């Protein structure tokens, strides 16, 4: 038993402090640590506060800090800042999409500092909406909605994909990417007795056995799955990864869902593929956004939502809930779950996963 109580500093702007950090979680943090807030304004989800004076002030606060939690508004934590933190053992990013934009991870690792990221707090609603779009798209619900608002009327269900192939139960579902969102989605799909195929070069082979799926190629997912779901982040490696060649691999009667980023799928090629009317798409993202008067909003075989999958009131405080869990695990001597590692950084930078 030890009386050690770590000192934890929260470095973020006032919006994060008010909207992300719930009083209940602060009470949980207070049960095992002392904490303070360093208010800093500037930057956004993917960029840091670039004010040198703010960085200097933050560095001056780090001498007695054991744990540091950062989010919007925080300056970049580079080598010069981290050298002012001799006791720092763990740094946590609340919402950086695992790009580590506010943290020089190599400098942190060189000092033996554990680095974690709880951006996966938004993966919970994304996985739910992915399931929703799968079900909606299998029934071709966008077409039915358009028919209702146009005044109803009879339709030939013998030509309706939602009638012919609308059940999810027993289908083969292919996931392009299997990070936090993909693994949660697999849990949601299990009651439907689906067969899961996954293409993701960044996950370990044994993950397939632990989670329960077949690890395969992108072409196999596109050619042989009834439902195809894009879950990858937008990186130099994934931007435009599904183009005309890939879209032509998808057989008639299939469903394509995208809850990742619009630029992962070539928009012009997607429109041409959908124009044939033989596949259905459920899209939460598109390029460009917003849709405006793009012709895709008029396609009967498309269901659209305006990039809302990860945005719910509960998702913002969940980032800090997961972070307190991580801090509690770490300072109790346990292993953390959501580490920024060379593999996760390679994924987000789009570099070779085997390098």
Q: Which structural traits does this protein have?
A:
355 residues; seven-stranded parallel sheet; five-stranded parallel sheet; 15 helices; Rossmann fold; elongated; alpha/beta
Summarize the structure.
With 355 residues, the protein is α/β, with parallel strands linked by helices.
What does this structure look like?
By secondary structure, the protein is α/β, with parallel strands linked by helices. The chain has two domains: 7-117 and 313-349, NAD(P)-binding Rossmann-like Domain (Rossmann fold, 3-Layer(aba) Sandwich), CATH 3.40.50; 123-304, NAD(P)-binding Rossmann-like Domain (Rossmann fold), CATH 3.40.50. Helices cover 36% and strands 14% of the residues. The protein is built from 15 helices and twelve strands. The protein has helices at residues 14-19, 23-30, 52-60, 79-82, 105-110, 123-138, 141-149, 161-165, 180-189, 205-212, 218-224, 244-248, 267-275, 315-331, 342-349, and strands spanning 7-12, 34-39, 67-70, 90-93, 114-117, 172-176, 195-199, 214-215, 227-230, 255-258, 280-283, 302-304. Strands 8-7-6-9-10-11-12 form a seven-stranded parallel beta sheet, sandwiched between helices. It has a five-stranded parallel beta sheet with strand order 2-1-3-4-5. Strand 3, helix 4 and strand 4 form a beta-alpha-beta unit. Helix 2 packs parallel to helix 14 and helix 6 packs across helix 9 (180-189). It is elongated, with a radius of gyration of 23 Å.
Number of helices: 15
Shape: elongated
SSE series: EHHEHEHEHEHHHEHEHEHEHEHEEHH
Mean pLDDT over all positions = 94
Query: What class would the helix/strand composition place it in?
Result: alpha/beta
CATH class designation of the largest domain: Alpha Beta
CATH superfamily of the largest domain: NAD(P)-binding Rossmann-like Domain
- CATH topology name of the largest domain, in short, is Rossmann fold
Measured distance between first and last alpha carbons: 42 Å
Give the tally of structural domains.
Answer: 2
Lateral strand order in the biggest sheet: 8-7-6-9-10-11-12
Q: Percentage of helical residues? A: 25-40%
Total strands: 12
The largest sheet, given as strand count, sense and whether it forms a barrel, is: 7 strands, parallel
Spans of at least 5 consecutive residues whose pLDDT stays below 50 are: none
Radius of gyration over all CA atoms, rounded: 23 Å
Strand fraction equals: 5-15%
CATH architecture designation of the largest domain = 3-Layer(aba) Sandwich
């Amino acid at each position: 038993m030890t009386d050690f109580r770590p000192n934890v500093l929260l470095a973020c702007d006032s919006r994060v402090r008010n909207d992300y950090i719930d009083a209940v979680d602060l009470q949980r943090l207070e049960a095992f640590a002392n904490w303070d807030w360093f208010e800093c304004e500037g930057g956004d989800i993917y960029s840091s506060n670039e004010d040198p004076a703010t960085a200097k002030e933050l560095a001056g606060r780090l001498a007695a800090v054991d744990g540091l939690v950062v989010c919007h508004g925080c300056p970049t934590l580079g080598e010069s800042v981290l050298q002012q933190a001799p006791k720092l053992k763990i740094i946590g990013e609340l919402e950086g999409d695992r790009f580590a934009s506010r943290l020089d991870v190599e400098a942190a690792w060189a000092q033996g500092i554990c680095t974690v990221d709880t951006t996966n707090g938004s993966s919970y609603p994304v996985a739910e909406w992915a399931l929703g779009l799968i079900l909606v798209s299998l029934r071709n619900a966008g077409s039915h909605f358009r028919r209702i608002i146009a005044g109803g009327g009879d339709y030939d269900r013998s030509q309706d994909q939602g009638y012919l192939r609308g059940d999810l139960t027993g289908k083969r579902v292919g996931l392009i990417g299997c990070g936090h969102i993909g693994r949660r989605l697999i849990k949601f799909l299990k009651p439907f007795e689906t067969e899961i195929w996954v293409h993701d070069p960044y996950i370990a082979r044994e993950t397939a056995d632990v989670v329960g799926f077949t690890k395969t190629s992108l072409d196999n997912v596109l050619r042989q799955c009834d439902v195809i779901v894009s879950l990858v982040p937008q990186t130099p490696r994934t931007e435009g990864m599904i183009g005309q060649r890939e879209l032509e691999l998808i057989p008639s009667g299939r469903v394509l869902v995208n809850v990742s980023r619009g630029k992962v799928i070539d928009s012009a090629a997607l429109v041409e593929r959908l124009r044939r009317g033989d596949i259905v798409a459920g899209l939460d993202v598109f390029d460009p956004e917003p849709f405006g008067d793009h012709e895709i909003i008029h396609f009967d075989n498309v269901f659209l939502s305006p990039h809302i999958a990860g945005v719910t009131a509960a998702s913002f405080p969940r980032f800090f809930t997961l972070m307190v869990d991580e801090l509690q695990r770490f300072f109790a001597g346990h292993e953390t779950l959501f580490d920024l590692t060379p593999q996760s950084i390679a994924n987000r930078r789009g570099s070779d996963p085997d390098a």
